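Final report, Chapter 2: Outcomes

The project's central promise was a pipeline that accepts a single protein chain and returns its three-dimensional structure in a standardized token representation, suitable for archiving and comparison. That pipeline is now operational. To close this chapter, we reproduce one record exactly as it appears in the project archive, with the input sequence first and the structure output second.
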Amino acid sequence: MGNDKRWVQSAMARDGTCPVPFNFAFSPPARAAVEKHYGGSPVEEVLRFPIRMAGPKSIKPLYADPSEFGPTVTDEFGVLWTTNDIDRGSPIGPCLAEPDLSGYTFPDPLACYRFEDLADWCDENGDHYTVLWVGDLWERATFMRGMEGLLRDVTLSRGFVEALLRGIADYMLATMQVPFEKFDFDAIAVSDDYGAQQSLLISPGDWRSLVKPLLAEIYSAARANGRAVFHHTCGNVYEVI
């Protein structure tokens, strides 16, 4: 086992004998500036990140370059995004105009393009602590329905919200099975924003009834397959910690 793996596992076990392990995520301009400063070497190597992160591909990458994709791009869920040179863009075209899934088909979570290069990446980073991002749940629903629409639906069309989140969770669970079966890595990561500056976007009760049970399924699937779980969320979420 590599030293990086032991380092991260010791920190997660809270043994108190090592510094906090780290990873930095850079936007493309920031990455270019840092790598130029260090003579062109990959930032992960020159700064010796113990934690390395990757994930399945999307037809709309996190940072979609407008010179390649144009001013907008549509992801596999049917959501229209802006593109720009400095950040991930914004979801400007929800794919669900109404709280209705009857005419909607979720994308194929097992599409081959999603897992291209992941086996090689896992092999190349095997001495480090490797984490694969497997998707987003509530956040994905806000992209698909629009934030305002989804917040209304929580009160006015709750059955639709439950069905939408169930479909997204099933997509994530299916996504995870391929890496579990084929790749050697240490943990999954979920990216799901629940908070605004001062509070949750929905009530703690709504979060616990709509989101938490599905997260429990995703976490449990990872642990049943011997992987740890990382979770990212923005905002003030103290009410549900």
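Archive annotation: The chain is about 40% helix and 10% strand.
This record, like all others produced under the grant, will remain available to the consortium after the project formally closes.
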